[in-house]
Design a protein that fits this description.
Elements: E1 2-7, H1 16-24, E2 33-38, H2 43-52, E3 55-58, H3 66-77, E4 83-88, H4 94-102, E5 107-112, H5 120-133, E6 136-139, H6 142-149, E7 155-156, H7 170-179, E8 186-191, H8 200-213, E9 217-222, H9 228-237, E10 244-248, H10 253-259, E11 262-265, H11 274-281, E12 286-289, E13 301-304, H12 309-321, H13 326-339, H14 344-361
Parallel strand pairs: 1-2, 1-4, 2-3, 4-5, 5-6, 6-7, 8-9, 8-11, 9-10, 11-12, 12-13
Length: 363
C-alpha cells in the first residue's frame, strides 16, 4: 500500500512534524510505502529526509500560497496513492480530504493533534463533510479525539517518544550548562512554537516575578514563531534581556532538557503536550496549565490554572527547594511511559497494524 503522509502545518522541529518524524521515519514494513507532502520545510529536516532516502514532495506554503499548494497536491494525489494520512488540528484538514476523494483515494485517514482551534465557527461548519469524507479517525489523546470527533469512533495513537534518547545524563547536563553559561543558575525551560497557544507572554511574566526573588535564575525558550518580535519586546520592557534566552529551533532538544532544572508549560490548550513526556523522561519536574490533558502526566507534572501568577512562582520555588535525584526519577518515568504505552517502538507497531488493517479491509 502506498501512503501519502500530509502535514497541514509547517514541517519543522516543532509540533506535529515531530510526531511524523518520530513515527514515520522509522517505519520499515514489507508492502507498505510511505511518502511525504510537506511545506515550509526546515533545512536541517530536509537533510534528514535526504539522508534517510525517504521520498518527499516539497510544496508551496499552505498558508502563504494556498492556491499553488492545493494545485500541486492535486497533481501529486492523482492516481498515485492508495491512502492519505492527513495530520492536523481541526476540520481544516477538509480541503486535503476533498482532493483525496476527488482523486479516487479510498482510504482517507485524519489524525487530530489538538483540543481546540483558532476558528471554532469555521471548524463547526466544516465538520459534517469532514466526517463524511474521512474513512479512519486517529487522535493523539482521548481529549483530542472527543473534541474533534464528538462521539464518533476513533483510535488513540499516542504521541510516543524514544524514551532512551531523553534519559537523564549528568555529563550532558554539565557540558550544556557550561556551553550556555548557565552554571550556578536555576534554569527554567520551555519548548514550543512562539504563538498564542503556547502562552509565552504569561511564561515570561511568571519568570519576571520569580526572578525578582531569585536573581540567579534564567529562562530558556526553544522554538520559533510569528509572535517572536512581540515576545522580544515584552522581554525588553521587563528588562530581562540578560536573563531570558530565546534559542530558536533545535534538533536535539534532549541536550537542553538535561540542562534545565524545571519545565514550565502554560499552554492555553493542547492535544497532549508531547514535550511534557520528553521532559519527564529526563526526570525533569514540570508545571503545566490545567488546559493540558492529564494523560501527559507521568508523575512529575503539577497542574495549575492560568491567572494567578503567584501560585506558579510558588510552584517553581517548591521545585527549586526540593532535593532532586534526576537519574532515579528519569528511570521511574521511563518505566511509567512504557507502562502507559508511550514508548515509540510499540506505537510504531500499532501504526503499521492500523495501515495494514485498513488496507485489508479495503480489498
Amino acid at each position: 500500500m502506498r501512503v501519502l503522509v500530509i502535514n497541514t502545518t509547517p514541517f519543522t522541529y516543532q509540533g506535529i512534524a515531530c510526531v511524523i518524524r518520530n513515527y514515520c521515519f522509522r517505519i520499515n514494513s514489507p508492502g507498505l510505502e510511505l511518502q511525504y507532502a510537506v511545506f515550509d520545510l526546515h533545512p536541517e529536516l530536509e537533510k534528514e529526509l535526504k539522508q534517510s532516502g525517504l521520498v518527499y514532495y516539497r510544496l508551496a506554503s499552505r498558508k502563504d500560497n494556498s492556491r499553488i499548494y492545493f494545485k500541486q497536491l492535486k497533481l501529486l494525489l492523482n492516481g498515485h496513492f492508495d491512502c492519505v494520512h492527513i495530520h492536523g488540528n481541526s476540520a481544516m484538514m477538509l480541503p486535503e480530504l476533498v482532493l483525496a476523494k476527488n482523486c479516487g483515494i479510498k482510504i482517507r485517514i485524519v489524525h487530530c493533534h489538538n483540543t481546540t482551534c483558532n476558528n471554532p465557527l469555521l471548524n463547526s461548519l466544516l465538520l459534517p463533510l469532514f466526517y463524511r469524507l474521512s474513512t479512519c479517525r486517529l487522535a493523539c489523546s482521548e481529549e483530542a479525539g472527543n473534541w474533534l470527533y464528538k462521539g464518533r469512533s476513533y483510535t488513540v495513537l499516542n504521541n510516543a517518544i524514544d524514551t532512551e534518547v531523553f534519559r537523564f545524563d549528568e555529563l550532558k547536563r554539565n557540558r550544556n550548562r557550561k556551553e550556555l553559561g548557565l552554571e550556578n543558575q536555576f534554569v527554567i525551560g520551555h519548548i514550543g512554537r512562539i504563538n498564542e497557544q503556547k502562552n509565552h507572554k504569561y511564561l515570561v511574566r511568571v519568570f519576571k516575578e520569580f526572578h525578582d526573588h531569585v536573581p540567579d535564575s534564567k529562562l530558556i525558550c526553544i522554538g520559533e514563531g510569528a509572535l517572536r518580535p512581540d515576545l522580544e519586546q515584552l522581554i525588553s520592557d521587563l528588562k530581562l534581556e540578560e536573563h531570558v534566552m530565546l534559542l530558536g529551533e533545535h534538533k536535539n532538544v534532549e541536550n537542553l532538557l538535561n540542562a534545565m532544572d524545571c519545565f514550565v508549560f502554560p499552554s492555553k490548550w493542547e492535544g497532549l503536550g508531547m514535550v511534557l513526556l520528553e521532559a519527564q523522561a529526563g526526570g525533569l519536574p514540570c508545571i503545566a496549565s490545567d488546559a493540558v490533558p492529564g494523560e501527559a502526566d507521568m508523575g512529575l507534572t503539577r497542574y495549575l490554572p492560568l491567572g494567578n501568577m503567584a501560585s506558579w512562582c510558588r510552584a517553581i520555588e517548591d521545585i527549586k527547594n526540593r532535593e532532586q535525584n534526576r537519574c532515579k526519577t528519569s528511570e521511574l518515568c521511563i518505566r511509567t511511559l512504557k507502562h502507559k504505552s508511550y514508548d515509540l517502538n510499540e506505537n510504531i507497531k500499532q501504526l503499521v497494524q492500523i495501515y495494514l488493517d485498513i488496507s485489508h479491509a479495503g480489498t
